[in-house]
Amino acid sequence: MQYTITTTNQQGDRKYNQDRVTVLETDNCILLVLADGIGGKKGGDLAAQTLVDTVTNIFETSSTPIEDPKRYLTNILRVAHNAVTTMGKNHQPIIEPGTTAVLCLIQQDNAYWAHVGDSRFYLFREGLSLYRTKDHSYVEELYQRGKISLDKRQGHPMRGYITQCIGHMQVMPTIDVSDEVALLKGDILLLCTDGLWEPLDDAVIGEILSGMELERALSKLTEQALQASSPHADNTSAIAIRINSLTQGMHPKKEEQEKQHEAKEKVHELDLAIRNIEDVLEEYKHEID
Fold first, then answer.
1. Do residue 277 and residue 209 come from a single domain?
2. What is the pLDDT of residues 130-186, one digit of tens each?
3. 162 HSE (CA, 13 A, CB side)
4. Is 175 in the same domain as 38?
5. Which residues form a coiled coil (predicted)?
6. What pLDDT is recorded for position 155?
7. How far is it, in rounded angstroms, from Cα 79 to Cα 218?
């Protein structure tokens, strides 16, 4: 698989940056990780960092490709939840930090994603939002039940109140995990915090991402989100990946390694052929003479 990845992580107008992003890669697997520490609670930055560190440690010791992606993503977030709550208990003084989480696993030309909280995953195809996670938030629940309109949702005074998170409470959060989704050339996958998606319309996000080079597009989206929210702009972070081609799930570095290996094999075969010819010539040398 040939792909392009870019990330952004901006503090905005907040005193601290509690967002965290990371990209983890092997020869046949990619794991994208995004977290937004809960504001108003001490240690939001610690919770987000603990989640990223926990996911990283597990992934780096995992055999890839992942055998059961849906179970893997669920379990990895459960472990992260326990790690965050334990970190809070061991902190002096004791704190109850929390964070949102979005994970996206890409392997064998397929994508799987999981989330907790109101950070989002999008899959854009030809500029249109084909998939989008549903926020674990009070306002999203009101909207889904038909209690408020889309316009009211966007300006609701409790729009920042989330109903699920990693950490903060002992009870295990609700973890939403997608089914397997086959990727196509040109697909763009986006993980982002509410600092990016809240000030912008989904259609605008898709249009900009599909209309220019990926790094420039994400930079433009970030700038627009910060400007629209100024002077109260939230931390604004995102990871975007564009699928440039599908080639048996091959990582770019791995593909180059395979080409080098094939070249060495051809040289080896040629050496063997030459050696066989030399042996034959030696065997029938007296007849040739």
1. no
2. 999 999 988 877 877 777 766 666 666 666 789 999 999 889 999 999 999 999 999
3. 29
4. yes
5. 253-287
6. 65
7. 31
Q: Which helix (H) or strand (E) holds 113?
A: strand 110-116
Global pTM reads 0.83
* Residue pLDDT, tens place only, 106-125: 999 999 999 999 999 999 99
Distances (CA, A) of 116 to 34, 40, 80, 245: 11, 18, 11, 30
- Residues 133, 233, single domain; the answer is yes
Radius of gyration of the chain (CA): 25
Q: How many CB atoms lie within 10 A of CB 36?
A: 31
**Cα torsion angle, 165, 167, 170, 175, sign:** positive
Distance between CA atoms of residues 123 and 189, nearest Å = 5
State the Cα–Cα distance between residues 237 and 234, nearest whole angstrom. 9
Cis-peptide, bond into residue 199, ω within 30° of zero? no
- Cβ atoms of 29 and 274 within 8 Å: the answer is no
- Give the domain CATH number at 207: 3.60.40.10
Which whole number is the average pLDDT over 205-234?
96
DSSP letter at 34 equals E
Give pLDDT, residue 256: 47
Q: Return the residue matching tokens 């433009």.
A: 220
Q: What are the φ/ψ torsions at residue 245 (nearest 5 degrees)?
A: -165, 155
* Kind plus residue range of the DSSP H or E element containing 208: helix 202-211
Between CA 99 and CA 118 the distance in angstroms is 10
Q: Is the pLDDT of residue 241 over 50?
A: yes
Domain that holds residue 41: 2-246
The answer to whether residues 13 and 106 belong to one domain is yes
